[in-house]
Amino acid sequence: MKKVAILTLFLAFASNSAVVNGNSTAHFIRGDVSGEGIIDITDVIILQNYLYLGSSDINCMETADVDDSASLNNTDIIYLLEYIFNGGVEPPTPFPNCGEDQTEDSFDCEEYTACY
Ligand SMILES: [Ca+2]
Ligand SMILES: [Ca+2]
Questions:
Q1: Which CATH architecture has domain 2-86?
Q2: Which ligand approaches the C-alpha of residue 41 most closely?
Q3: Which ligand is nearest to the CA of 42?
Q4: Ligand 1 center from residue 109 Cα (angstroms)
Q5: Nearest ligand to the C-alpha of residue 30?
């Protein structure tokens, strides 16, 4: 099952921990909104709660801009759902490995522990 393969792949990145404070050069995996190194439905739920229910649980906002459009909206949720469940296009880099954002945006990454 594809989801299991993805989980296995990302577990490899979840072993170390460190905190990056307000650093735009933080290393992260795009789409991993929950910040544990795994892309799954939990990330979709957190992003949905953030956008529509006012939840403030996202420690690394860079991860939430799934399509790297420099804005957060329903498109990011759909993009992630398509990738996870429908064989959709992978999120732009940094993905599936840890890395820095390659494009300018206003998002910050206060904490993302899965890449350190
Ligand atoms: Ca996740
Ligand atoms: Ca976006």
A1: Orthogonal Bundle (1.10)
A2: 1
A3: 1
A4: 15
A5: 1
Task: State the ligand closest to the CA atom of 37.
Answer: 1
Ligand 2: centre distance to CA 43 (Å): 14
Distance 49 CA to ligand 2 centre (A): 15
* Helices assigned H by DSSP within the chain: 2-11, 41-53, 61-64, 74-86
Helical axes 41-53 vs 74-86, angle rounded to 10°: 160
Over residues 34-55, mean pLDDT? 96
User: Taking CA 31 as the corner, what is the angle to CA 23 and CA 13, rounded to the nearest 5 degrees?
Assistant: 75
Res 46: pLDDT: 96
In the chain, helix, strand, coil percent, each to 5? 35, 5, 60
pLDDT digits (tens, 9 = 90+) for 15-38: 333 343 444 689 999 999 999 999
Structural domain spans, the chain? 2-86
